Amino acid sequence: MPALGELADLVSGTISGNSNIKIDGVSEIQNGKSGTITFFDNPRYREYISETKASAIVVSNEAFLNGKNGIVVNNPQLAIAKILSFFQEKPDNLTGVHPTAIIHKSAEIGEEVTIGAFAVIDSKVKIGDRCIIGHHASIGSKSQIGEDGLLYPYVNIYQDCVVGCNVIIHSGTVIGSDGFGFVTEKDVHYKIPQNGRVIIGQDVEIGANCAIDRGTIGETKIGDNTKMDNLVHIAHNVKIGKGCLITAGVGIAGSVEVGDYCIFAGHSSVAPHLKLGSRTVLAANAGATKSLAGGKVYAGMPAREIKEQNKRDAVLTEINILKKRVEKLGKKVPN
């Protein structure tokens, strides 16, 4: 059980109060428990600072503590993430291969690798050191998983895909499925073979039940340090830059090119063959129907710069108000 001072060292913070108190976990500020540490980063929760029963609070300004024990840091959310990691219960993974796992004799398995029950590792697969492959996961022929990868149960990676080091993929996700490619003649849809592959960079995290399609001929690429929420679909031949944040329900159509550090809010979407510049932000439910310059926030369908979209929304509101007034006046005029 660490002392508050030890946690302050962990997050490079400054102690306020008793550095020797013991901390045995983390709790929510509104449901604080004695012996735990919590954090304050959202003004909406300010009322709970004086009420919380937590023994210490991580804050950005010592004045927020009102005499309580705490740690002062520049970024409380980042600090609590590190503290949560410290207290996180580690899974009881036994290094080695479960006897029910099926591994092709040509596969290359690194050192200290865990492969769970009923996992299937196909021919010429390469798995780096210290990877954890969950039960019932499958890795197709000639695919590669970099060092320190974590594939949760029921992840499916098709053939000839490359996954970088320190990548986390959650359950139900499919990497390398066929892109939606058909050519129509006389009302018959003919499938276009999808012979490309998927390349995922390092330090990427992919949520549950995502689908990343392989390229038709070339490659679908996900840049280093990009993070995806659950239920994201990335179509064939998409190129996503580094450090992007893609939240739940996002769909990115084929051959789109996304720059670095872009943000996609929930259920936003991008039409095929477009380019989004670096640091583009799509607001929730926004739909990009043309290429967008980077460094701007877009909203609406079709997506426009958010200031313009807000003006349009305001005009529509005013029109509705005027319409109601006219209807009321119409009722007062005698027939």
At a glance:
With 335 residues, the chain is α/β, with parallel strands linked by helices. The protein has 2 domains: 4-87, 3-Layer(aba) Sandwich (Udp-n-acetylmuramoylalanyl-d-glutamate--2,6- Diaminopimelate Ligase, Chain: A, domain 1); 155-306, Hexapeptide repeat proteins (UDP N-Acetylglucosamine Acyltransferase, domain 1, 3 Solenoid).
Would you write up a description of this structure?
The protein contains four helices and 38 strands. It has two domains: 4-87, Udp-n-acetylmuramoylalanyl-d-glutamate--2,6- Diaminopimelate Ligase, Chain: A, domain 1; 155-306, Hexapeptide repeat proteins (UDP N-Acetylglucosamine Acyltransferase, domain 1), CATH 2.160.10. By secondary structure, the protein is of the alpha/beta class. The strands form five sheets. Strands 6-9-12-15-18-23-26-29-32-35-37-38 form a twelve-stranded mixed beta sheet, covered by helices on one side. Strands 7-10-13-16-19-24-27-30-33-36 form a ten-stranded parallel beta sheet, with no helix packed on it. Strands 8-11-14-17-22-25-28-31-34 form a nine-stranded parallel beta sheet, with no helix packed on it. It is flat, with a radius of gyration of 26 Å. Helices cover 15% and strands 28% of the residues.
